[in-house]
Description:
Elements: H1 2-19, H2 21-48, H3 69-95, H4 100-110, H5 116-124, H6 127-139
Helix pairs in contact: 1-2, 3-4
Amino acid sequence: MAAEGWGVRLMVEWLAALFGSSLLWYLGGLSVVTFVSTLLLVPWVIVRIPADYFSRRRPPKPPWADEHPVVRILLRSLRNAAGVVFILAGVVLLALPGQGLLTILVGLLLMTFPGKYRLERWAISRPPVLRAVNWLRRRAGRRDLSL
């Protein structure tokens, strides 16, 4: 235990010396903001997933699929950039108090990459995950997800 505390203290001192103490305040604030936002946003998103989303062979088209190609590229780029920001914040939060893994997961879900839908279906098909998701959906008066 003492060695773990020493390592964290050393890392904090190194970051403070490298970037100044204001960075630590910003990182602490980021930790609090991501913790609270994941507590609010994750249930909100889970409740809004269509019940048959994971039983489809292919993911549904995004709402902007019929827009002008420039708009589609812009929106897709912004969404991927937001995903990268979440992933980087999640990596930082792995070392700080906060929801690092959940923030990385949100970043991955925001991004567009080959095999993403398969990854989503695999993750949601894990029994503990599906149980928890369906419990949240039932509490909100929504149908269970069908695989």
